[in-house]
Backbone:
C-alpha cells in the first residue's frame, strides 16, 4: 500500500512551527517510513500532484496568496491541522488587526523610526501578494479538522499527534505537552 | 491647571468629607458641574480623597454617565433597546440626528447637545423613550424629536419639554414628569393602598427574631430575579458578626423589559422604605441605602421628600416608631448607568466608590457586604412584600400564589400587546392567561425574565409564572407574528457584550464569539455544526462565568435553540467544499487593492 502523503506549508508564520517539526530529530526517519512528504518547504515540492492524507498548516492568512494556498490545501488534503498559535488564532502577526492597513504600511515603510526610504514608496509590485485588512486564523477561511496549540507546539506534540492520526489511535497528549503557562 | 476647576473639585470632595467611599457622589457631581471628569479633575480628586489616580480613572471609565471628554450641557439618551426597536426608534433616531446635524455618540460643535443611545431605561410600556439629562420623554416619534431639538436650541432646559403630566405621583410637583404608570391590575399586596406606619408598628411590637420568623412563615422569596428566601437571608445577616450592618434596597432595575420598580417607587415608596426599616430592625442595622439607577434620577427629589416626611413622622431617625434604641435612617445612592450594578456584589462595589465589579463569593454579602459589614440586599418589590407581611400577617400573604412561590408578582409587560404596563398577579398564573390580559393572544414568542431570561414558544404558553417554572424578575416581552426571534437573541447578545464588566474571559470573550457565530447564521452562512457550537459555547459560558451576568447571558441563544430550533434550521445548510462561506476574499483584500491601485490576482 502506498504511504499516505503529508503536505505542509507556512503561511503567515515564522517557520518556527516547521523548525519544531524538524525537532523530532531522528524520529523523522521513522516518520518517512510512515508517510511520504508531498508539497512542502521541506522538500521544495511546489504543486499538488496527488491527494494528501494530511496537511499541516503553519501561520494564519495575512495576504491573498495565503488564502489561495490554504484553499488549495483544503481541496487536496483529507485532514487539515492548524499547527501553532499563528494558524489557530493569527498569533503575533494579528497584533496589527486593530490598526488600519494603510497606517500599518505607512508605519512600516514611511514613518517608522528606523525606516530609510528616500523614494518614499510603499512596495507595490504586482508580484507582491496583497495584504488582507487583517490577519485571519485559518479556521475562518477554511474548515480545519484539528488544532495543535503552542508557539510552536513542541516536537513531541506534533509527533504524537501525527503518529496517532496515521495509526488511527486516540491521541494521548500528556499534560506537559499542552500546558503553556 | 485652572484655579477654578481645582477649587471647585476640592470643594465637591470636601462636601463629601474627602471620603474615598463616596467616589460615586463626587464624580457624579463633578460630571454634572463640568460635563466631564477631566484628567486634571481626576488628579485633584485622587489627591483630595487620598487614593491613586487610577482608582478614580477606573470609576470614570466604567460608568456610561461619566466621561473624561466633555459632553454637551444637555445629553439626549435615546433607548434603542429591543422594545424601542420594535416601535420604530430608528426613525426617531434619524430625526434627532438630522435635526442636530450630528451622529449618535457625538456632541454638537458648539458643545451644547450630545446624542447617545442607551439600553432599556425602564419605559418600555411607553417606548420609544429617551432621557434628556434626567428628564424622561416618552412615546416619541419623528415630529416630537424635531420639536424637542427646536425647543432645546431655544431654552436648553429639559424640564420645559414636559408639556403634559403623567398620572398619579408623576404629576407631583417634585416629579413633574410625562411618564405614566400604566398600572393594569392593582393586586392585593404590593400595589394595594398604603397603610402608613402600620407595618412598622406591628414589627416593633415583636422581637427581631419573630419578625424574621414571620417573613419565613410567609415563604417570601426575593423578587429581584434569583428568588432566594428572604427570611433565611436575614437570618444569616443577623447571625453574622460585624460592628455595623446594612440594608440595601436594590433599585437598579436594569434588566431590559423591567419597569415595575419604577412604578412602585413612584406610587408606593413608603412601602419600600417601611420594608427597609423592618429589615433594619430584624438584622440590627442602623443604615439603609437605596441604590437608585441613574436613569431614575428624576424620582430622587420626590423620594428624598418622602424620606423627610418619614423622619418628621418618627418613622425614620432616632427611636423609630417610638421604640427606644432603634435608630434607623435611609440614604439614596445614585448609580451611573451600568446594568451590572444590579448584581448585588457589583452594587456593593459601586456603593463603596469603586468600579461596579462583582466580587468573589463566598463571603456572601450576608457575612461581608458593604464596607465588609454584614449586609442584606433586597429588591424594591421584595421589601414591599415584607411590609405587607408585617401589616397583614404571613397567612394573608401566602394565601396567594403557589407552594414554592408565595404571594403576588409584579409583571412589566411590553412589546406587541394592546395593554402594556404593570400587572400584579398571583404567582402560579399561566403565561397564556397573562398574555390574554395584556391583549397579546397572537404572540409567537415571549421573553420571560428579560434579556437574561427565556424565550418561550406558543407550545409552552400553558406554563406558569413562578420560581419553579418560568421565573422572572418581572419582565415579559411579547413578540408578534412579524418578529424574528433570532434577531432578538442577537440583539440581547449585543446588550451583554456591552454590559459585561470584562473581569472573566468566558463572559467577556464568549459572548462576542456567540454573537459572531449567530451573525454568520443570520447572514445565511451557517451550517448545522454551528448550532452545536452555539450550544457548547453557551453552556461553557454559563458554567464558567463568575457572576450572574455571564451565567445567564447565553440564555436567549440557548432557549431559542431549544424552543425555536426550526428557525435556526431554516437558515443553515451543509456544505461540502470545506470553505468557510463567511470569509469573503474580495472584501478582505479591498483596502489593499485600493492602496496598491491594482486588483488582487486571487480574488474573483
Ligand atoms: C446582572 C445582574 C443584574 C441584576 N439586576 C438586578 C436589579 O436590577 N434589581 C434587583 O433587584 N436585582 C437584580 N439582580 C439580582 C441581585 O443580584 C440580587 O439577587 C437581588 O437584588 C436580591 O434581592 P431579592 O432577594 O430581594 O431578590 C441582578 C443580578 C444580576 C446577576
Ligand atoms: S506559532 Fe509561534 S513558532 Fe509557529 S509560526 Fe507562529 S510565531 Fe512561529
Ligand atoms: S460574568 Fe461577566 S459581568 Fe460577571 S464578573 Fe464575569 S465578566 Fe464580569
Ligand atoms: S425603555 Fe426601551 S426597552 Fe425598556
Residues:
Amino acid at each position: 500500500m502506498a504511504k499516505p502523503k503529508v503536505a505542509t506549508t507556512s503561511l503567515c508564520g515564522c517557520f518556527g512551527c516547521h523548525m519544531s517539526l524538524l525537532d523530532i530529530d531522528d524520529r523523522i526517519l521513522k516518520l518517512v517510513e510512515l508517510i511520504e512528504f508531498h508539497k512542502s518547504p521541506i522538500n521544495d515540492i511546489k504543486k499538488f500532484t496527488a491527494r494528501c492524507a494530511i496537511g499541516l498548516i503553519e501561520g494564519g492568512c495575512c495576504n491573498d496568496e495565503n488564502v489561495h494556498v490554504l484553499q488549495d490545501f483544503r481541496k487536496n488534503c483529507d485532514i487539515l491541522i492548524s499547527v501553532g498559535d499563528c494558524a489557530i488564532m493569527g498569533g503575533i502577526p494579528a497584533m496589527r488587526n486593530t490598526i488600519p492597513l494603510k497606517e500599518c504600511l505607512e508605519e512600516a515603510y514611511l514613518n517608522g523610526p528606523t525606516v530609510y526610504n528616500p523614494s518614499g514608496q510603499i512596495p507595490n509590485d504586482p508580484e507582491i501578494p496583497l495584504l488582507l485588512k487583517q490577519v485571519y486564523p485559518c479556521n475562518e477561511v477554511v474548515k480545519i479538522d484539528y488544532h495543535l496549540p503552542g508557539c510552536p507546539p513542541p516536537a513531541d506534540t506534533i509527533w504524537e499527534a501525527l503518529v496517532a492520526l496515521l495509526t488511527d489511535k486516540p491521541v494521548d497528549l500528556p499534560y506537559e505537552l499542552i500546558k503553556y503557562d | 491647571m485652572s484655579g477654578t476647576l481645582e477649587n471647585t473639585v476640592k470643594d465637591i470632595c470636601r462636601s463629601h468629607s474627602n471620603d474615598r467611599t463616596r467616589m460615586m457622589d463626587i464624580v457624579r457631581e463633578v460630571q454634572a458641574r463640568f460635563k466631564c471628569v477631566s484628567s486634571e479633575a481626576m488628579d485633584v480628586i485622587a489627591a483630595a480623597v487620598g487614593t491613586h489616580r487610577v482608582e478614580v480613572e477606573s470609576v470614570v471609565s466604567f460608568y456610561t454617565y461619566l466621561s473624561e471628554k466633555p459632553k454637551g450641557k444637555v445629553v439626549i439618551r435615546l433607548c434603542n433597546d429591543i422594545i424601542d426597536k420594535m416601535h420604530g426608534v430608528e426613525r426617531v433616531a434619524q430625526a434627532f440626528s438630522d435635526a442636530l446635524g450630528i451622529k449618535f455618540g457625538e456632541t454638537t460643535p458648539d458643545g451644547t447637545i450630545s446624542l447617545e443611545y442607551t439600553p432599556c431605561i425602564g419605559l418600555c410600556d411607553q417606548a420609544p423613550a429617551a432621557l434628556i439629562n434626567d428628564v424622561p420623554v416618552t412615546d416619541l416619534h419623528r415630529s416630537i424629536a424635531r420639536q424637542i431639538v427646536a425647543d432645546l436650541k431655544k431654552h436648553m432646559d429639559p424640564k420645559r419639554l414636559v408639556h403634559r403630566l403623567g398620572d398619579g405621583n408623576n404629576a407631583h410637583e417634585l416629579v413633574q414628569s410625562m411618564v405614566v404608570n400604566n398600572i393594569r391590575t392593582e393586586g392585593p399586596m404590593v400595589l394595594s393602598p398604603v397603610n402608613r406606619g402600620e407595618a412598622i408598628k406591628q414589627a416593633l411590637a415583636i422581637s427581631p427574631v419573630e419578625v424574621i420568623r414571620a417573613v419565613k412563615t410567609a415563604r417570601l422569596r426575593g423578587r429581584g430575579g434569583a428568588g432566594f428566601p428572604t427570611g433565611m437571608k436575614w437570618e444569616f445577616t443577623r447571625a453574622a458578626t460585624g460592628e455595623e450592618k446594612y440594608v440595601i434596597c436594590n433599585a437598579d432595575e436594569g434588566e431590559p423589559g423591567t419597569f415595575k420598580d419604577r412604578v412602585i417607587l413612584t406610587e408606593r415608596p413608603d412601602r419600600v422604605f417601611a420594608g427597609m426599616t423592618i429589615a433594619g430592625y430584624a438584622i440590627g442595622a442602623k443604615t439603609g441605602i437605596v441604590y437608585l439607577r441613574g436613569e431614575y434620577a428624576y424620582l430622587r427629589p420626590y423620594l428624598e421628600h418622602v424620606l423627610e416626611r418619614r423622619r418628621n413622622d418618627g418613622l425614620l431617625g432616632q427611636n423609630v416608631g417610638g421604640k427606644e434604641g432603634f435608630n434607623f435612617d435611609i440614604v439614596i445612592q445614585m448609580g451611573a448607568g451600568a446594568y451590572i450594578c444590579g448584581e448585588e456584589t457589583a452594587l456593593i462595589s459601586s456603593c463603596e466608590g469603586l468600579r461596579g465589579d462583582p466580587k468573589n463569593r463566598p463571603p456572601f454579602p450576608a457575612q461581608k457586604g458593604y464596607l465588609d459589614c454584614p449586609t442584606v440586599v433586597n429588591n424594591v418589590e421584595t421589601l414591599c412584600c415584607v411590609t405587607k407581611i408585617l401589616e397583614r400577617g404571613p397567612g394573608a400573604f401566602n394565601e396567594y400564589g403557589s407552594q414554592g412561590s408565595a404571594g403576588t408578582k409584579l409583571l412589566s409587560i411590553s412589546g406587541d400587546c394592546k395593554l402594556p404596563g404593570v400587572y400584579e398577579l398571583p404567582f402560579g398564573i399561566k403565561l397564556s392567561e397573562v398574555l390574554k390580559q395584556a391583549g397579546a393572544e397572537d404572540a409567537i414568542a415571549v421573553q420571560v425574565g428579560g434579556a437574561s431570561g427565556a424565550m418561550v414558544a406558543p407550545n409552552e404558553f400553558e406554563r406558569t409564572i413562578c420560581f419553579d417554572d418560568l421565573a422572572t424578575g418581572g419582565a415579559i416581552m411579547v413578540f408578534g407574528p412579524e418578529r424574528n426571534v433570532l434577531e432578538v437573541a442577537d440583539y440581547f447578545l449585543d446588550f451583554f457584550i456591552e454590559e459585561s464588566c470584562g473581569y472573566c474571559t468566558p463572559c467577556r470573550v464568549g459572548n462576542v464569539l456567540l454573537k459572531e457565530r449567530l451573525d454568520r447564521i443570520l447572514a445565511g452562512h451557517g451550517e448545522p455544526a454551528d448550532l452545536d457550537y452555539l450550544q457548547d459555547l453557551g453552556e461553557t459560558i454559563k458554567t464558567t462565568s463568575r457572576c450572574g451576568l455571564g451565567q445567564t447571558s447565553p440564555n436567549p441563544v440557548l432557549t431559542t435553540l431549544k424552543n425555536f430550533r426550526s428557525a435556526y434550521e431554516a437558515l443553515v445548510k451543509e456544505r461540502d467544499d470545506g470553505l468557510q462561506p463567511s470569509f469573503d476574499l474580495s472584501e478582505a483584500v479591498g483596502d489593499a487593492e485600493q492602496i496598491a491601485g491594482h486588483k488582487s490576482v486571487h480574488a474573483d
